[in-house]
Amino acid sequence: MRIARRRRELKLTQEQVAERMNVSVQMISNIERGNKAVRIENLVRLCDVLKISTDYILTGKRTDNDFDTLTEKISRLTESDYKMIEMLVDYRLSENNKNKRYEDFSPYLFILPNICVLSRKG
User: Which are the contacts of 23, defined by CB distance < 8 A and separation ≥ 6?
Assistant: First the structure.
């Protein structure tokens, strides 16, 4: 599940991942569905292609390197985009939302347009 989700976040197809890893599309499909064990060397190549740590793929936990990568990306944002991300983080950490699952993106459907408007005003 994490592999497929990350691939979609990067807007990659299974074909593109397979090509970059020099493996079959069927292998990528089987890995994503959990139908096939992954050899260590393929896991490392998969993580390189998906720009994510093996820890995240295996356990779902982010590493310092994952956070460093995110921090670097955020540092390149415009001031208004930075404020928008900050507001989104604050919203997700607020008392009303701390019991919601990370994967529950439904609040974003109504809050993102409001954040965008607020960040443009600020």
Answer: 42
**For the chain, first and last CA: distance in Å?**
38
Distance CA 43, CA 76 (A): 30
- For the segment(s) 2-61, the CATH number from 1.10.260.40, 3.40.50.150, 3.30.499.10, 3.30.565.10 is 1.10.260.40
Closest CA to 22 of 8, 41, 36, 35: 41
**How far is it, in rounded angstroms, from Cα 52 to Cα 114?**
31
pLDDT digits 0-9 by tens, 31-73: 999 888 889 999 999 999 998 888 888 888 877 777 787 888 8
Place of tokens 């499909």: 29
Q: Is the dihedral of CA 19, 29, 57, 13 positive or negative?
A: positive
